Amino acid sequence: MMQAKGGVSNLTILGSTGSIGTSTLDVVARHPQKYKVRALTAYRQDELLFEQCLRFKPGYAVMLDEAAAARLSSRIKAAGLDVEVLCGEQYLEQVAALPEVDAVMAAIVGAAGLRPSLAAARAGKKILLANKEALVMAGRIFMDAVRKNGATLLPIDSEHNAIFQALPRDYAGNMAASGVSKILLTASGGPFRDMPVSALQQVTPEQACAHPNWVMGRKISVDSASMMNKGLEVIEAHWLFNAAADDIQVVVHPQSVIHSMVQYVDGSVLAQMGNPDMRTPIAYGLAYPERIAAGVEPLDLFKVGQLDFVAPDFERFPCLALAYQALRTGGTAPAVLNAANEVAVEAFLNRKISFLDIPRLIADVLNAHSGEAVNTLEDVLMADKHARVAAQKWMLQ
Ligand code: NAD
Ligand code: MG
Fold it and tell me: Which end of the chain is more exposed for a tag (fewer CB within 10 A), N or C?
């Protein structure tokens, strides 16, 4: 489904009002002759979605919240725009699979992104995958759908995009055959890397969301603070690159200049570097295999001066160990980990549990689960549902 060189690529942007969604539109706006937006989607931010409709004139705008969709609809009418406003989950899947769409940016946060991302895979689209939770939950099903339907999967998560860039172009999921010995997944360590562990009990959602190097949505910001984000990324790397848990080494690198590395058997280590700006991986995904300008400040190595690397601290960040545990258990365990984490993060953001309760809740829910086999999407969705119930019960204890 790759557009011909020089042709126009039609896009669906799932989660267009989010951090990744707005960065995607920023890159798209720099290349109006190359990209046309066919569909935009958002949960309930109708004001921003309306502005995006005015600017990018998509054929469709999908919302989840009915009141927000109604407001959007009347403003679209008043403005005389030719945008069809749709409301409901099923339309997310529909706009991800539109016949005229070439590429889908999957940038919904959390489990809600699974079905629409999968719909893009099943429709054989070029998928720009930011929604890591989809792979964590249903990696096997997702990768099978990509293969069976001839879809192209391009990782947008900066680390996985870096690994993708550092792997051989013809990499087909066999590390040994490509001479790859390890994947080195870098992590900033988040805002609490150096805070005394005793102070972590008291940290607030505002502190957790103040990431030193990246500006992101609230859920992934908390995940970065707990390092669950890196844990989810280990599982994501496992599926994307067919790498075993033992072949994925997390490297804490506070400057976030190296976005990840691939180590080869001859001793070579290839790194992808750049300023921490998601427009780089987004532009890479949009234009692949070409390169386009992304509006990103060039890397000034003299200003960076120094690059540091340290081993991850599994005691300070138990979420990272829990993610490795879920990956090794396999089956539905990663879906359970993800669901418990989503409930825990939401509760932390709503000040119902403390920061240190996040790993406690996840550990208890994960350890009570046996990790069943995944044969169908239903298996994943059931595990997700049960884990959410268990997580809610945990909070009532
Ligand atoms: P965000 O919270 O800023 O945006 C989320 C988007 O999804 C919004 O458009 C929102 O309207 C929509 N959305 C939320 N809940 C929804 C639901 N239930 N149904 C349908 N749509 C819904 O999140 P973000 O930071 O842009 O992250 C998006 C995804 O990209 C996440 O999976 C995240 O892990 C991943 N990611 C983000 C970054 C980053 O820098 N922000 C980096 C790497 C990966
Ligand atoms: Mg990342």
Answer: C
